Amino acid sequence: MHEMSLMSEIIQLVSEDARSRSFKRVERIDVVVGELSNVLPDALELAFSYFQGQGLVFIDEATTLKIIREAAVARCEICQWEFEPDYQIALCPKCDQVSCVLVSGETFKVESYEGSDALES
Ligand SMILES: [Zn+2]
Q1: CA–CA separation, 38 vs 43, rounded Å?
Q2: Which of 59, 63, 71, 78 is least enclosed by beta carbons within 10 angstroms?
Q3: Is 100 marked as a binding-site residue?
Q4: Tell me, what is an example of a GO biological process annotation in this record (predicted)?
């Protein structure tokens, strides 16, 4: 599952930033996962709980992972209709044209994280 390597990258990214800001630990990580991003939130959480037990410097059992789901939204460039597509390439349900652009739903990123100066949460 590629969520394992994605989570590893997220933790590395956050840890490097936390180190540069002289934080002692990370309290929370907020991640945005789009419905069409090919990332499974369940698998991401599973990967996160694995890393929580690895004795990392900034991430431990008390660190929380918040997954913010981003809905898939497509807009038809012909009639401007906005709808929820099942796939990246979608047919407009209103005018049947394949001129739709994806407005959101492909995002996968760290929205923010919360660091702490204290060792105990
Ligand atoms: Zn349309």
Answers
A1: 11
A2: 71
A3: no
A4: protein maturation
Q: Cα(90) to centroid of ligand 1, in Å?
A: 10
Ligand 1: centre distance to CA 102 (Å): 13
Distance 81 CA to ligand 1 centre (A): 5
pLDDT digits (tens, 9 = 90+) for 28-68: 999 999 999 999 999 999 999 999 999 999 999 999 999 99
One CATH from 3.40.50.720, 3.30.2320.80, 3.40.50.300, 3.40.640.10 for 3-20+27-115: 3.30.2320.80
Q: Shortest CA distance to 10 belongs to which of 58, 53, 69, 55?
A: 58
